[in-house]
Amino acid sequence: MTSTVRKSLRRLAWFMAGLLCAVLCAIALPSVWQPATATQDIGYAAMLEANPQPRSVISSRNPEFEAMAASHLEPNFYQ
Amino acid sequence: MISRFRQHLRWLSTLMASLLCTIWFVCGPVTTLPAAAAGNGVNVILMIGDGMGWEMARAAALAKGAPLYKRGKGRGLSFQNLAGYSLATTYGTTVQGADGRFSTGNSALDNSNPATAASPLRPGFSFKPLPFNPGTASDGGATGSGLGNLVGYEPKRGGPNPWTPISPALSAAGGYDKEYIKYSVPDSANTATTLYTGVKSYNNAMAVDLYEKDLKTILQTAKDLGKSAGLVTSVPITHATPGAATSTVNRRSKYDNDFPALDNILQEALRQDEDGDTFLPEVLLGGGHPLDFENRTNAGPIYNYVYIKKSTYDELSTKPTSNRYGYTFLERGPNAARKLATTAKTIDPEKGGKLFGLYGARGQNGNLPTASANGDYSSTGLDNFSLQTTAVPNNQVPTPDQTRPLAPGETVAQFIAKERNENPRLVDLTQAALDVLGKDKDGFWLMVEGGDIDWACHDNSLDNLIGTMNEFDAAVQATISWIDTHGGWRKNVLVVSADHDHYLTLNDNLPDLLKAKGPEALTFQENKPAGAGHFWGSDPSIKYGWGSHSNRPVPVYYQGGAFRLADYVGKGYKAYGADVPGIPGLVDQSHIYQAMRAALTAPARP
After folding, report:
1. B275 touching A, CB under 8 A?
2. B19 close to A (CB below 8 A)
């Protein structure tokens, strides 16, 4: 009787150990699967040096036009 | 022997069960995630009439012959047939500058370094949601301490809805302030950021928050779910409304830069942002072509690279199917609409296909050819900003642009015919986008912008407003027809709204005047509100009175799927950790984002 119980306990212990391994792997592995983040040298400092500030927008006697031009006709910041 | 084997068999079965559990736990995420990512198969289509407030929709409906209505959703346009209707607030943030003046264009950083998120925080800044701070000027203007960083909207000053008061002439009698909606007006970058991320930010912000930190856009959420995504616009593809879905930059004028630089709209859309996050829309169709785009002389061609850098354009145009971006590239040229439709049929997002189409009429600021109200394209090739801008300094008598950048020997009629042939209409772009994205079984998110509606309103041009509204409505109708044959309203969500309003008032005599004189005469010949049947701004005696946006709530028309905007009416929202109270009868644009996101991520229906 005792032997049967021990056997069952042993099996249960094996099963629990396997289950624990599975849980640990499930938690740990996804972080390994994350795609690598691409990195790129953009030459940012050089770019900023060449284009320190955006160009001024088209001037006009109409202040509303200036407000509109600032949003719709502003030159490319990097021009 | 058999008994020993049985004993081992039992051990073996236990071991196998453990192993199976291990495999299931470990590999479960790999095998089940794609299935979950495939999601609900729902398509969400957001169509933005840039600047298309309630009065702009009414102008187009009346021009189509609809009876005069003075409240509510109205009728006459295809999107006014959608089942759902609401009104949304559009305001953004306002931050005190070093001079003590609040400005809607300030982020919380001191702007000492033009790179995104590279400047230090303004000394002493901490976000304060309330009290609402509308200021005293179109870009802010408040001074003093104890003021909040949200512009907000106060129905007691601006009116509970866009038709109350229906005219600034009736404002004072109702206890309203006719100047109020001119204060701290939002721009298209700020409002697009809220629509795509649910976060309130400053004018100029392209999917970055008040601290210039990157935000995750709804386009990225859709792509995370295995869906495809697309952007379509009638104005430059690197302009604010499309650009805020596919870039995270601190200024809307950072259109493009030479490869491999980032911190600009186009390179981030086509590649990645500076943190390595990708957007990569499967469809990118719009204006901004460099050919004569801002040529105001009578001779072309001149290439001017503003919305796209020359190096980017050269890479795409010389290698239309083998460029470094991996996009199939189309541009303006003979039989453009047919070529686009044919190409769209061959692009399959399930196989990694991506389409980039770059168009724009000559002499028209990079926009698609302007249809004008009667559809004769008589405004095509003319500067989109020459009516209001010449009328204001010239005592309300405009001298609009009449000069097209004609090629040698080209007549005006030939010019217009060529521009129509070499550029698709917004409806063609929309149809092509639906043809491509509709192939993705997981569904898609698509934004279609009638961007030139806003440009017509800035110019106070009723003729161009009605024309651009008609083009936008045709695109909406094509989308509704597509939905009818592609899963219906159970599978598709359609939201039609504006990013912000303009200050237009229609007089009751407009329908009669439209019939008697036509929109072209009311725009270019009648310079007084009484004869024109409409006026822009807060003074009923001045026709060309306001060339900027307004802070008035905008209409939202919607139908389909699990888009439950009605649940948000009157509800507040969270801004930078603080509770912001709702406004009775209204939703906020951040709620449109939340409802779109819920529709995209909702469990699949059985």
Report:
1. yes
2. yes
